[in-house]
């Protein structure tokens, strides 16, 4: 094949991305996903490299990344949360990649702002850290599991949030995300045809109205989701889904319950909205 | 009170920190927690400011932060994931704080590396994005809930990970974290005295040995955790906890099952270790 001198060199449409960390690599991955989401149209193959916590491992990680770069014919992209110091130096010395370093960019300026030196200690981000706070988070997960789908009314007064909505509107994953990410005790309670017929909220919810938040969903999407579980059922039929969604919204409107549609929102977006609407956006316990 | 000219000005020991974002603020919070974890000994009061997605809101957020700074007598620290553009400009114009901007630091250099301009689009990080991938994640959460605590053996062959361990060793929160964060189908299965007496793994696990990972725990910690649920029970007694932990470890050793102690590890650390040990550290589906 003759090469044409006027031809633009082909721009790679897929890049390999590594998350390199001395601990879990969760921060590196979150950061990378946020930044890469700004570049539409490219494909990324992602590798996690957690627990790169010795110089030997730092060198081995760098060499492995170099190999992948050679195979790909284009240098990999690395998001590194190695703390500045010998681990990061060793890694950078050997690594032939485009390296984005979280701590190099931010820790220095912050040392000057805070007027104290940083610890240069590895593995801090996702350690247990404050045991009391960590225990609260695990307690929140256990609470949320015990109060999933209206399983029990016992202890409902301890909830930080009570999610309501028709079956399969997204209450369970959202509750679990609230507990896991924010340490929030999130009960959830289904709104069922019996409630609509009675024209009243489930009686158990009367005393926690200020903590209730509703999830709605488009009837079409609800019918799809229910249909995966129970194909061709009345439960999943579009007519029934339309009826339930409409009645649930009518009830929430009447009771002054705020709600949003989960149809095209992620559990992260739903959760952040709930915290904002219920004004749970400060965490005074989150000091270290 | 007379001031002493030789006295060092008092360094504030508490700082107020804001997470400012045009969407969920989850990335900003993760970034902030990672960076601040490098500064031991200070206390932080943290506020989330999600959905700062209009210029009006950007200005209001900045003014609110300034107010807090005045009250505190020291300027707040802001971790911002506002995308470069008019939102960020408006915010920076009004805000009198120490602002750390994620995108300003990394997106420019990455544009040059990738050879494409960034999208400057707001709210991308935690959107549903790839619907198929998001659905897989929700499916993983549902799978994990259905396969919690050995509830069913049906579909165990579909698990990516099967966690085993004695009751209250941390299997449930870890399984849920694996599902939520990584979209991994994580079943979990208790090891109970009947298994130890029989001297064999639960029969349901015979066919998924390559996916099994074990959690152990110190008997003392286990006894504390169980004691909260069932005080003064044989179940929670230190003798029984010692017996169960020892037998479980003996069984895992004999069966060649890798395990770690959850005693002083967070669910994030346990999860990252499991992925590394079971070699599930690449996600080929994670392209956008």
From TrEMBL, chains A, B:
Q: Report the EC code(s) recorded for this entry.
A: 2.7.11.33, 2.7.4.28
**Catalyses which reaction(s):** [pyruvate, water dikinase]-phosphate + phosphate + H(+) = [pyruvate, water dikinase] + diphosphate; [pyruvate, water dikinase] + ADP = [pyruvate, water dikinase]-phosphate + AMP + H(+)
Q: Does the keyword Transport apply?
A: no
**Main EC class the enzyme belongs to:** transferase
Annotated residues for binding of ADP: 165-172
GO molecular function terms here?
Answer: ADP binding; ATP binding; phosphotransferase activity, phosphate group as acceptor; protein serine/threonine kinase activity
Q: Does the keyword Transferase apply?
A: yes
Keywords tagged on the record: Kinase, Nucleotide-binding, Pyruvate, Serine/threonine-protein kinase, Transferase
Question: What start and end residues bound the annotated signal peptide?
Answer: none
Matching PANTHER family: PYRUVATE, PHOSPHATE DIKINASE REGULATORY PROTEIN 1, CHLOROPLASTIC (PTHR31756:SF3)
Q: Which family does it belong to?
A: Belongs to the pyruvate, phosphate/water dikinase regulatory protein family. PSRP subfamily.
> What is the purpose of this protein?
Bifunctional serine/threonine kinase and phosphorylase involved in the regulation of the phosphoenolpyruvate synthase (PEPS) by catalyzing its phosphorylation/dephosphorylation.
* Protein name, as recorded: Putative phosphoenolpyruvate synthase regulatory protein
Task: Please give the organism.
Answer: Parasutterella excrementihominis
